[in-house]
């Protein structure tokens, strides 16, 4: 019997709680002590805006500076700008960009700027002049991105930072790319991202989200899936996210515990929710596709009052569809409501809520013989289902409520706090293959049923302070985050009769359920983090930081181990990176980062396992075109995970020790954005060498990671036919190549390489957009994930969806 935590463990946990509360009270005291007349010193930033038409220069500068900049196109038409370069405040940058134009930028009370003609004999930029009517909004880390190339991110630093200043590989998939490529799932959305491959497993792509990033599995249980910068679902059974509700998806690659705590070494995925917009946005979409897919969705946003202090957004979707497997379904209802209150330019409060009900089915596994391996009876068709139609259900309901509060006490001091409550319930029934007869036709199987319930609360509070020390500009971030998760799961098995996989007969009686597990899992974690972004002489960006985490896990199986396991861990994670900002748009960087993940269980001497540790060394290079519409990136990395379990030399059959080590080395290339005014591209290449470097089992040393392709290549391009006199017509095509994946010495077979072709054609006229999207156009039959046990799972076959959208 496993004993509960000792009194010393309880005392340690108490000290950790006291420390966390002390830090929180210290932050609150600091905020309370700030005078109302806090300094109003402006933030300086380094800018590189090339000379050109004044209209273009102003738009780019407004986006880079993160300010609201308003001007009339008639006022700037035909004028040229000398560009904006160097470290400057927003007002100084505008003055440089407007030099010689006869125009000035007028600062408003809310911190925004308006471009006007200069008064005769005056060059003042603060004279009160009337407002103009044409406005432009700046791109931020969470706002809509026009095109495929995002300029800013908050995932890598928790601060709104230009991507070129991040010394770590990060990929952003924008909502424009999601719409154009016709992505229907998070796996689809990340299909053209370097270093990422989706794992479908036995769950099916519609019911779960699990990925390989740089060779390591990333999924909700490992803490690798975030929503709006906070940990999201506690486990893989909480259902897949609806991509129509996302503004963009960001992938931070490599060890990244510095800001988010528990995480797999490969990296993390952060989905950004659609938020209210200052300008009116209204659209309604209808879709129809194969597999009897019928869907309607809508997105409405804009101001609620004349002053623009209150803005809202409503996003909704209703889908009725079948799945590609026989007797399957893929139905969903999604509703999201958001409200932002901005009483001033310094303060904002955003409330986010969502409801998602998915009533789908599990596509089910098929035997290796007949899918991946040869079967003399023939290849199994892609839509074959070997369970019982009356015992197939994935009925999941998710609900979330979030708040995101920001307040700038001055141009140098900002406060942020994010909170979220997440709940999920699940009724899940599916089948498992337990054996294949000698005739290679008869399949033994059983039913499996889950009743799951999940709750999670996450909170993140931080202060951002900007100051200068000589030629060095600092942006310091101090924060504390906390999460608590509860997951209950009652599981049972049901006996099924055998079935002929080539001539299945359904509706056969099955036995009563036998309880196998009643799990009660509680997790909590507290983290303190400190980070400094140092910009030196406008050319170098040094990023350093550290984090201390305390975690607690209580895992009970009421049937088999009611006393359960109580395990506490603590870990420190660090990161350091350096970027050089060259005048020609190149940004080389080098970095070191760490991660950790608690490891449940005990060794032979009843010592609790230590957390696994990840360490990454990375060298990279980015190039951003002067108009910032195309981003090219390259990275070379080495990623090592230690404290990996390996058989105990004394009792290898029953116990493990943590002397194992695995390593992933690789190269990544990526291009995103506009090659020309009419041609967009999203291209990626990855080469991964992932293997076991230390193990007590000699057969494992040098063995490559199971299911990880050595190479992946993807290319998507879409073109608008403007030069042919057809500016309303747009077409695109893409190919995704996934290289062969190795098996193992235990009998898991190798998996062959495969390539998938996607295509799109769209026509836009006035407020309408008509499109046809096809994925896996050649209807390739393929196995995307490792064939563990006795079974494999087919990937998504050809899917064609026609859509019509109306914006008003």
From TrEMBL:
Domain Secretin/TonB short N-terminal: from-to ranges: 67-118
Name of the protein: Secretin/TonB short N-terminal domain-containing protein
SMART domains tied to this protein: STN
Localization, UniProt: Cell outer membrane
InterPro entries listed in its UniProt record: Beta-barrel_TonB, Beta-barrel_TonB_sf, Plug_dom, Plug_dom_sf, Secretin/TonB_short_N, TonB-dep_rcpt-like, TonB_rcpt_CS, TonB_sidphr_rcpt
Annotated family: Belongs to the TonB-dependent receptor family.
Record NCBIfam families: TonB-siderophor
Membrane topology of this protein: Multi-pass membrane protein
Matches recorded under SUPFAM superfamilies: Porins
Protein's UniProt keywords contain Cytoplasm: no
Keywords from the named record: Cell outer membrane, Ion transport, Iron, Iron transport, Membrane, Receptor, Signal, TonB box, Transmembrane, Transmembrane beta strand, Transport
Gene3D superfamilies: 3.55.50.30, TonB-dependent receptor, beta-barrel domain (2.40.170.20), TonB-dependent receptor, plug domain (2.170.130.10)
Signal peptide residues on this chain, from the entry's feature table: 1-38
Ranges spanned by the short sequence motif TonB C-terminal box, renumbered to the chain: 791-808
Pfam families, A to Z: Plug, TonB_dep_Rec_b-barrel
Superkingdom classification of source: Bacteria
